[in-house]
Automatic annotation (TrEMBL):
Family of the protein in this entry: Belongs to the anoctamin family.
Protein name stated in the entry: Anoctamin
Xref: InterPro entries: Anoct_dimer (IPR032394), Anoctamin (IPR007632), Anoctamin_TM (IPR049452)
Keyword annotations: Cell membrane, Glycoprotein, Membrane, Transmembrane, Transmembrane helix
Domain Anoctamin transmembrane per the UniProt entry, residue ranges: 149-719
Membrane topology, from the record: Multi-pass membrane protein
One GO cellular component term: plasma membrane
Pfam families, sorted: Anoct_dimer, Anoctamin
Length: 740
C-alpha cells in the first residue's frame, strides 16, 4: 500500500517520438532518476508521471534542520516526516532540478514540455474529516479545525483561515454596534430639526443646478433626501467612527495573541525560513552557492518612479469618473424623462458607482501585471522576499483603484466648484458637481453601498461559479472511453493510480497566488470596513455576512474544486500584518476627515454654540438648531449670472420678475461674494476637531496596543516549561553517560 503513495504528478502531452519536446522531457526525468526518484508512467489521453522521492532526502532534511517537525523526539530515531513537509521538499527539488540544457521545470512548462505538476489529494482520514466537517455550507457557524487544516494544507493556509475566522468573529461585534447606530439614525429620521426646516422651506428658491435647461427649485423639494442624510449624519456616527478606529487596533492586538496561541503547538518559534531554504538547496545540489543579498539604489529609484506613475494613472481614472458624473448630470437634466430630470444627480452618482466597480475589476488585472513586472525589475533574493515586495505594490495600487473615487467624493466634491456667477468648469463648459444643501455624506454612502454590495455579491458568485463550471467541463471532456480489447489479450486491469491521478488532473489548477488573492480580497474589504465607516455604518455588517460565506467558499474550493496546494511553512501572516497596521492608521485619519470635512457635524455644532437663538437670545423654548438652514445658505442676485447662462425657467407659482435672488449652499457675503466670518470660524473648528480626533484616537490606539500583551502569559509559561524540561533531560543524559 505504502509503495503506491506518490508525492507529485507531472502531466505532459503525448509528443512525437524523437521530437525536441520529448527529448527535453526525457532529460528532465533522467535528472530526477539520478537523484534516486522513483518514476511511474501511465498513459491515457495525456502522459502522467508519478514521482516519489527517496527516503534519504528526508533523512538529510531532518538531520540538517534537527527536524523542526519534532516534538521533543529522541534524536536518534527517524520519525515519519509529515506529508506537508514531504510535498514541500519534493516541490522544491522539482522546481530547482536543472537539465543539461540548463532548463528548470518552470522553463519546460513555458515551452509546453510539461502541462501541469501537482501534489495529490490523498484519501487520508484528515481529508475526509475536512470534507465532512469543514468544507460544507451547513457548517457556517461552526468552529474551524485549524490543526487539521494545518496537517493537510500546511501552516500558511491554516494561518489564513485562523486569521479570517478571528477577523469575522470580531467583525460580529462591530456589525452589531454599526447596526445599532444605523437603527438609531432611522429613529431620529423624522425628528431632526435640520431636516424639518428643509421640508418646511416652501419659499426658499434655490439656484439652478445646471446652466441650460435647469429651473429654479424649492428647497422643500428635497425633503426626503435631507431626511436620509440626517439618518446617516448624526452624533452617533461620530462615536461609531471613534469606536471603529479603536476596534481596528484591538483587533490586531488580539490577533497577535490568538496567533501566538495557535502557533504554540506547531513548534515554529525556532524555525528560520532562510535556513530551511539553504538546507533544501544543499540537499538538491551539494555544489550550490547561496545568492548574496544585494541592494541597488538606482533600481529602487526606478521602481519608485514607476510606482508613482502608476498611482498617477489610477488617480487619472478617478478624475475620468468625476468628468463622467459631471457630463452625465448635464445630460440627465436635459433628458425627456421627468424622473431622470428630477433625480439627475442621484442617477449620475449611482451609474458612476457601477462604472467605478467595472474599473476596479479591469484595473485589478492590470495592477497585477504591473506589480509583477516591477518585482522582476527588483530581482528579490528569495521567494518570500519577492512575495513581500509584490504584496506592498499590489496593495498600494489596489488601494488607489478602490479608494481614489471615494476620496474625491468625501473631501473634494462641492468644495472646489466655485459659486453662482463664477463656477469652476471642465473645459470651460461643464460645471463641477455640487453638494446637496443637506450635505455630501449621502453621495459617499451611495457609492460605498453600491461598491461593497457589487464586490461582495458578484465577486463571490464568480469566485465559486467559474471553478465549479470549469471542473464540470473538464470532467465531461475526460470521461474515460472503454478500451478496446488489445491485440486479442484480455482487457488489462486498470491501474488504481490512474483513476486518482485523472480525477486530480480534472480539478482546477492552483498557483502561487491562489492564497495571496484570498488575502488581498479580505484586506481590501477590511479597508472598506474601517476607513470610511463614518459614512457607511453598515459596512461591518455586510463584511460579516460576506465572511461567513467566504470561509466556507474558500474551504469548498480548496477541498473539492482545486488541486491540492503546495503546503508552505509560516509562523505568522507575514507582511500582511504591517499592511493591516497601516490601514488602522489610515482609518483614524480617514474617519477624522470624514467627520471634520464631509459631514455637517462641525457646522451644526458651531451654529449651535455660537450663532443659534439659544446663544443669542437666551430663549429656552426653541430648538437650538432653529434657523441653521437659513444661515448655511448664501444669497445670489440673479442679475450677476454669467452671460452665457440662460436665466432659467420660472417656478409656476411665481411671476417672472418677482425672483430677484436665489440661494446656494455656502458661507458668502451678498455684496461681493467673499467668504463670511462664519466660514472661517467653521474652517478653524474643522481643523481643531481633526487634530483633536486624530490625537485622541491615536493615543487610545497606543494605549490599547500597550495594554494587550502580544503573547499570552500561558503561552510564555508553556515555553518556559518546555525549555526547562529539555535542559534537565540533557543534563541527566550527560550524568548518566559519565556514570556508565
Amino acid at each position: 500500500q505504502d509503495e503506491e503513495k506518490w508525492d507529485f504528478v507531472l502531466v505532459s502531452n503525448i509528443h512525437q517520438v524523437g521530437s525536441e519536446k520529448e527529448n527535453k522531457r526525457k532529460k528532465f526525468l533522467d535528472e530526477l532518476s539520478k537523484k534516486g526518484f522513483t518514476i511511474k508512467k501511465i498513459e491515457d489521453k495525456k502522459l502522467f508521471y508519478g514521482v516519489r522521492a527517496p527516503n534519504q532526502i528526508f533523512q538529510k532534511y531532518q538531520c540538517l534542520l534537527r527536524n523542526p517537525d519534532r516534538m521533543l523526539q529522541n534524536p536518534t530515531v527517524h520519525h515519519d516526516i509529515p506529508v506537508t513537509t514531504r510535498i514541500r521538499i519534493v516541490n522544491f527539488i522539482l522546481q530547482n532540478t536543472m537539465t543539461p540544457d540548463l532548463e528548470k521545470l518552470h522553463d519546460l512548462m513555458k515551452k509546453k514540455v510539461f502541462e501541469a505538476t501537482f501534489p495529490l489529494h490523498e484519501k487520508e482520514e484528515v481529508r475526509e474529516f475536512l470534507k465532512e466537517k469543514w468544507a460544507r455550507w451547513r457548517d457556517v457557524f461552526c468552529q474551524q479545525p485549524i490543526e487539521k487544516i494545518r496537517c493537510y494544507f500546511g501552516e500558511k493556509v491554516a494561518l489564513y483561515f485562523a486569521w479570517l475566522g478571528w477577523y469575522t468573529y470580531l467583525l460580529g461585534i462591530a456589525a452589531v454596534v454599526g447596526l445599532v447606530v444605523f437603527v438609531a439614525g432611522i429613529t431620529v429620521f423624522n425628528s431632526s430639526q435640520v431636516s424639518k426646516e428643509i421640508c418646511e422651506a416652501h419659499n426658499t428658491i434655490m439656484c439652478p443646478l445646471c446652466d441650460q435647461k435647469c429651473p429654479f427649485w424649492l428647497l422643500s423639494d428635497t425633503c426626503t433626501y435631507a431626511k436620509v442624510t440626517h439618518m446617516i449624519d448624526n452624533e452617533g456616527t461620530v462615536l461609531f467612527a471613534m469606536f471603529m478606529a479603536i476596534w481596528a487596533t484591538v483587533f490586531l492586538e488580539l490577533w497577535k495573541r490568538q496567533r501566538a496561541t495557535v502557533v504554540t503547538n506547531w513548534d515554529l518559534y525556532g524555525w528560520d525560513e532562510e535556513e530551511e531554504e539553504l538546507a533544501m538547496e544543499l540537499i538538491n545540489n551539494l555544489q550550490h552557492e547561496p545568492r548574496q543579498y544585494q541592494h541597488s539604489y538606482f533600481c529602487s529609484t526606478i521602481v519608485l518612479l514607476l510606482v508613482l506613475v502608476m498611482i498617477a494613472v489610477l488617480i487619472g481614472i478617478a478624475h475620468a469618473l468625476v468628468i463622467y458624473r459631471v457630463i452625465a448630470t448635464a445630460l440627465f437634466t436635459q433628458s425627456n424623462f421627468e424622473f431622470l430630470r428630477e433625480q439627475a444627480n442621484t442617477m449620475a452618482v449611482m451609474t458612476g458607482a457601477v462604472l467605478h466597480y467595472i474599473t476596479i475589476v479591469i484595473m485589478t488585472k492590470v495592477n497585477r501585471r504591473v506589480a509583477l513586472y516591477l518585482c522582476d525589475l527588483e530581482q528579490p533574493r528569495t521567494f518570500s522576499q519577492r512575495e513581500n515586495n509584490f504584496t506592498v505594490k499590489i496593495f498600494t495600487f489596489q488601494f488607489f483603484t478602490n479608494f481614489s473615487s471615494l476620496i474625491y467624493i468625501a473631501f473634494f466634491l462641492g468644495r472646489i466648484n466655485g459659486h453662482p456667477g463664477n463656477y469652476v468648469r471642465i473645459a470651460g463648459k461643464w460645471r463641477l458637481e455640487e453638494c446637496h444643501p443637506s450635505g455630501c455624506i449621502t453621495d459617499l454612502f451611495i457609492q460605498m453601498a453600491i461598491i461593497m454590495l457589487l464586490k461582495q455579491t458578484i465577486s463571490n458568485v464568480m469566485e465559486y461559479l467559474i471553478p465549479w463550471i470549469a471542473h464540470k467541463l473538464r470532467k465531461k471532456q475526460q470521461r474515460p472511453k472503454k478500451r478496446s480489447v488489445m491485440l486479442g489479450e484480455d482487457e488489462e486491469v486498470e491501474d488504481p493510480c490512474k483513476r486518482q491521478w485523472l480525477s486530480n488532473y480534472q480539478l482546477n489548477e492552483v498557483n502561487v497566488f491562489s492564497l495571496f488573492d484570498e488575502f488581498l480580497e479580505m484586506v481590501i474589504q477590511y479597508s472598506f470596513t474601517t476607513i470610511f465607516v463614518a459614512a457607511f455604518p453598515l459596512a461591518p455588517l455586510l463584511a460579516f455576512c460576506n465572511n461567513l460565506f467566504e470561509i466556507r467558499l474558500d474551504a469548498i474550493k480548496m477541498m473539492r474544486l482545486h488541486r491540492r496546494m503546495v503546503p508552505r511553512k509560516a509562523k505568522d501572516i507575514g507582511i500582511w500584518l504591517q499592511v493591516l497596521e497601516a490601514i488602522g492608521i489610515l482609518a483614524v485619519i480617514g474617519n477624522g476627515l470624514v467627520i471634520a470635512i464631509t459631514s455637517d457635524f462641525i457646522p451644526v455644532q458651531v451654529y449651535k454654540y455660537t450663532y443659534s437663538p439659544c446663544m443669542t437670545e437666551n430663549s429656552t423654548g426653541v430648538d437650538c438648531l432653529t434657523g441653521y438652514i437659513n444661515q448655511s445658505l448664501s444669497i445670489f442676485r440673479i442679475q450677476d449670472f454669467e452671460p452665457h447662462t440662460k436665466v432659467p425657467e420660472m417656478l409656476p407659482d411665481f411671476v417672472r420678475d418677482e425672483i430677484k435672488e436665489c440661494r446656494y449652499r455656502d458661507y458668502r457675503n451678498t455684496d461681493d461674494y467673499s467668504y463670511t466670518v462664519q466660514f472661517w470660524h467653521i474652517f478653524a473648528a474643522r481643523l481643531a476637531f481633526l487634530i483633536l480626533f486624530e490625537h485622541v484616537a491615536l493615543c487610545v490606539k497606543l494605549i490599547a496596543a500597550w495594554y494587550v500583551p502580544d503573547v499570552p502569559q500561558s503561552v510564555k509559561n508553556q515555553f518556559l516549561e518546555r525549555k526547562h524540561s529539555n535542559l534537565r533531560k540533557e543534563l541527566s543524559m550527560m550524568e548518566y553517560s559519565t556514570e556508565v
